[in-house]
């Protein structure tokens, strides 16, 4: 993280499909999830009156006229990705030996990449210690334990002076006179407002969650000792929903870095919340009436079922074990759904770590939203791209 520059949202890492020697570069094959079996439709022949022979049609035209057949072809081509073409095996032994030597150099390169990432992690830990006094001061002002100094206010006003037309899209601030009947302490609902201005985090917050999140007083970050990973700390004031004063979420990385040289997400461990009676926001009670066909009497059945809630964040999905992946009856659709949930859970953790905690006031005021919207506009501007009607057809 850079202290002197605004951190703009980072785009999702582009998935680049490996291209073996026998796979065309322009083959559009989905590689981010298991391929789904297409529903192949019958090939519809032309009318006899037109005298069109399907067997004489151009293969490209045949695929374009039948999306199901095109999907099947893509699926078959997808099976070729990553498979050897036989080119390497056809080379002379001396050349293959040199290639093995290059692979050995690549192994050494991977070791240096791992050292690099560990060094970066140590630098992040070092600078987190420098940020802590600022986070302590921020928490004092938010909670009302202290007021900002004149110099702090001046610095904040100067930071916004470059954008006179700025309109805060976050909190709605009401000016109160000295004679006002209501006196606010600190900044009410600071973290709730900041979280609701962060996408996709806001989509996980329900109306019922808001009452509990109004008691959220601080969010902090810490790094793990002796292992790559980080922990999120959510501090709450006494509330009507749970007994805990702090909820934690820990993200672990794998011991070895990934192919791209970055840490690879391993798993997340949440917090078992001590809910007060009938206050669990992650569950709801469904009440149904059942009538006895013989006696005609009715009874009320109460059933507790899971429901959407931000606090499901503390019950993260767990990746499948190697044994589970090797089972013959594994459900690919369930694995695909689990993969999406794991990706979302990790993304939320990274958003807290990289965005919300270091730039909480920008999310509270809505300033951070302008940077995210500007980034999206850069990729959604149709004028920046040339359309190819043939490819689209």
UniProtKB/TrEMBL annotation:
GO terms for biological process: nucleosome assembly. Residues 42-53, 160-180 have a biased composition (Acidic residues). Residues 1-58, 142-180, 374-393 are annotated as: Disordered. Residues 1-13 have a biased composition (Basic and acidic residues). Pfam families: NAP (PF00956). Coiled coil: none annotated. InterPro entries: NAP-like_sf (IPR037231), NAP_family (IPR002164). SUPFAM superfamilies: NAP-like. Residues 19-34 have a biased composition (Polar residues). One of its GO terms (cellular component) is nucleus. Belongs to the nucleosome assembly protein (NAP) family. This is NAP-domain-containing protein.
